[in-house]
Design brief:
The chain contains eight helices and eleven strands. The protein is an alpha/beta fold. The chain starts with a strand and ends with a helix. Strands 5-4-1-9-10-11 form a six-stranded parallel β-sheet, sandwiched between helices. Strands 7-6-8 form a three-stranded antiparallel β-sheet, covered by helices on one side. It has a single domain, classed as Rossmann fold (3-Layer(aba) Sandwich), CATH 3.40.50.1220.
Length: 228
């Protein structure tokens, strides 16, 4: 039997229960930092050392936390569905939770690249320091998509959304584009679920269901609803 394609878009809300802070819970500050200073090309040009320090701390934070029941629940659904995760998160909690098809829209905290080129990227588990150079001579930077930068993975993500038999949105404000527009690619006949402790405002869509719960509780309910 061919498994149905279950495509899941996740945001910061799914990792919040693992102890990773979200933008929208912090008045535009991220752990005390102005987002424009640490997550934009302008911030990098102005003070690369600050940006590197910020992401070095983020990397340590992600390494210390564990995937939660929502991450693990989505991985468990692979027994019955062809599950594809599209995540706006830069952490690796989906992978550690057991998911095998994960597309990172906004980059990955455990990867770095030259500030001169998007490719190739290199694994990094420790700190990136000023003066650490890529083979092309550029300063190494986090392989993260900052505000104001293109989102190269949006094209394959759009193709996944368009091919979804079921589409699920978990823990995202639906305010950050182009990710928020992915639901518009989903076929009308496909069931769509939004899971969040506060359901974001979205336009009326066919076959839309909402589960107003935190990610861990919401995924548990989703698993019951999707039982084959």
């Amino acid at each position: 039997m061919v498994k149905k394609k279950l495509v899941v878009l996740t945001g910061a809300g799914i990792s919040a229960e693992s102890g990773i802070k979200t933008f929208r819970d912090s008045d535009g500050l991220w752990e005390g930092y102005d987002v424009a200073e640490v997550a934009s090309p302008e911030g990098w040009a102005k003070n690369p050392e600050l940006v590197l320090d910020f992401y070095n701390m983020r990397r340590k934070n992600v390494a210390e936390v564990q995937p939660n029941a929502a991450h693990c629940g989505l991985a468990a659904l692979e027994a019955d569905y062809e599950v594809h995760i599209i995540t706006q998160n830069i952490d690796d909690l989906h992978e550690r939770g057991g998911s095998t098809h994960v597309l990172h829209l906004h980059g990955e905290i455990f990867k770095m690249r030259s500030d001169r080129s998007h490719k190739p990227s290199y694994e990094i588990r420790g700190d990136i320091r000023p003066g650490d150079k890529a083979p092309d001579g550029g300063q190494l930077r986090p392989d993260i998509v900052w505000f104001g930068e293109a989102v190269p993975m949006i094209a394959p993500a759009s193709q996944l959304a368009a091919a979804a038999d079921i589409f699920v949105v978990i823990g995202t404000s639906m305010l950050v584009y182009p990710a928020a527009g992915l639901i518009d690619y989903v076929p009308d006949e496909a069931p769509k679920y939004i899971i969040d402790k506060t359901i974001p405002a979205v336009r009326k869509l066919p076959n839309l269901h909402t589960i107003e719960k935190p990610a861990t509780e919401g995924v548990k309910e989703l698993m019951q609803l999707l039982k084959v």
